[in-house]
Amino acid sequence: MKTKEVRNLDDGELVEKIREFRDELFNLRVRNATGELENTARLGEAKRSLARALTIAGEREIDVATELHKHR
Asked: How many CB atoms within 10 Å of residue 8?
């Protein structure tokens, strides 16, 4: 996801995207460890997408950990 797209999300959507990025990254890591992942470049893309979202959340002073626990 591009930075511009992430910046256009409201706070609630941003927190949800962070949750999705974390889940995706976890799944990619598991698939990579078991040898199922063919496109290993996707692992790097997922890391960068998560980092972008976390950076923007930090700029907005959103406490991501608290927000993620609220919405379980």
From this structure: 10
